[in-house]
Design goal:
Elements (H helix, E strand, L loop, with lengths): L1 H11 L1 H5 L9 H12 L14 H18 L6 H5 L1 H25 L5 H9 L3 H10 L5 H24 L6 H25 L3 H13 L3 H20 L3 H14 L4 H26 L2 H5 L2 H25 L4 H8 L4 H13 L4 H36 L1
Helix pairs in contact: 1-3, 1-14, 3-14, 4-13, 4-14, 6-7, 6-9, 6-16, 7-9, 7-16, 8-9, 9-17, 10-12, 10-13, 12-13, 16-17, 16-19, 17-19, 18-19
């Protein structure tokens, strides 16, 4: 068991190695997927993602990935409120454009997953785009629109996507489970705001910091597991549970210590484990042997980029093209769709691999958009000097 775990952790290190270049800025999760592809069923077969305890690690990693995505969404932010109208319009335009394109893609490749394709085309990846914006220190009206747009798209598509992989008879039960998760999350926010003002809670926080009890981390993990348990018993999605837990934590403005603890727990092991095991479960040989799967990946990537660029050209102000390119970043949602589809049997291995490949391809225009933003900012600073 320990040899397999050592391989799992070693494969995850490929993520930071590929992300080391300051010029390319490859997202860490890309290297983790590649590590899993190398060691999994595509090539060496050294990691079996179905062997215990790997399924448990993958499930926890998936939940923590969604938790991290949820912490990027501040539902009370001034920026989100100020740009809500334009962001909503941009999202609506991408949705309108995505429906006929998804129908065409489904017809062209003989797929009945049109609803899933619509959600994937509309979506954006806050986990990819927002760290890129922060690393490059991008700012301005167009960047503000991008942040609000990406946040809205990420939040909506995360909630809806699991329903596209659920049987028609199970949708009401899944919706009820999702609603229960939202109610519990909202109740946790209200209860937490009241409790944290009490003297005993502040004293417990002080003692936790002095004696290193990590109470905040324990409570955060407990919240995630409780919401995950609701998802498990109601037929709701673990994706929604993790995302809701992240939004709850964001509302309490997690201190630096808790942020470090969560990063250590999630990014240090569980999230890389999810991506490595996902990569290990993908069949890249099957993708390469299937021209239709390759065509599906390319078509989804091109279509996702196109609908975001069109929406940005209509709604945006400055740097419209760059806004659309950056907003087209998608990887977390296709990876989640692939993981859910493979676990439930709703997606065949070539199609699941095609979804992940399409998400990887969207990183090319997204990175280009970030570079255009950075170049424009540099020119403005030069002119100002």
């Amino acid at each position: 068991m320990y040899s397999s775990l050592a391989l799992l952790v070693a494969a995850g290190l490929l993520g930071p190695l590929l992300a080391f270049s300051r010029r390319l800025r490859v997202p860490v999760l890309v290297g983790e997927l590649v590590g899993g592809i190398i060691l999994g069923r595509t090539w060496l077969n050294l990691i079996d993602p179905t062997m215990q305890p790997f399924p448990v690690f993958a499930s926890l990693g998936f939940a923590m990935l969604m938790l991290e995505a949820g912490t990027e969404v501040d539902i009370g932010s001034t920026l989100l409120r100020d740009e809500a109208v334009r962001a909503g319009l941009a999202f609506l335009l991408t949705l309108i454009a995505s429906i006929p394109i998804a129908l065409a893609i489904g017809g062209l490749f003989g797929s009945n997953h049109v609803a899933l394709f619509v959600i994937l085309l509309v979506g954006s990846s806050a986990a990819v785009a927002l760290p890129t914006i922060q690393e490059r220190r991008l700012a301005g009206p167009s960047v503000a629109l991008c942040i609000a747009w990406i946040t809205l798209a990420d939040a909506v598509t995360v909630l809806v996507m699991p329903l596209t992989l659920t049987g028609a008879g199970q949708i009401p039960e899944a919706l009820l489970g999702d609603a229960l998760i939202v109610v519990v999350a909202a109740g946790t926010i209200m209860l937490g705001r009241r409790l944290f003002t009490m003297g005993w809670a502040q004293e417990a926080r002080r003692l936790s910091e002095q004696r290193r009890w990590a109470l905040r981390l324990r409570i955060s993990v407990l919240l995630l597991l409780c919401l995950g348990a609701i998802a498990e018993h109601t037929g709701a999605s673990l994706l929604v549970a993790g995302f809701a837990a992240g939004i709850v934590l964001r509302q309490f403005h997690a201190p630096h210590r808790l942020a470090l603890e969560l990063t250590g727990l999630a990014a240090g092991f569980f999230v890389p484990a999810f991506f490595v095991l996902l990569g290990a479960s993908l069949d890249l040989k099957g993708l390469l042997a299937s021209p239709s799967a390759i065509g599906l990946a390319v078509a989804l990537a091109l279509a996702a980029t196109a609908v975001h660029v069109v929406a940005a050209l209509i709604v945006g102000t400055q740097q419209r093209l760059a806004s659309g390119l950056l907003a087209s970043a998608q990887l977390g949602l296709p990876a989640a769709a692939a993981a859910l589809g493979l676990s439930t049997g709703a997606l065949s291995p070539p199609v699941a691999t095609a979804l992940v490949a399409a998400g990887l391809l969207t990183l090319i225009p997204a990175t280009t958009g970030a570079m255009v933003f950075a170049g424009a900012a540099k020119e403005e600073s030069t002119v100002g000097a």
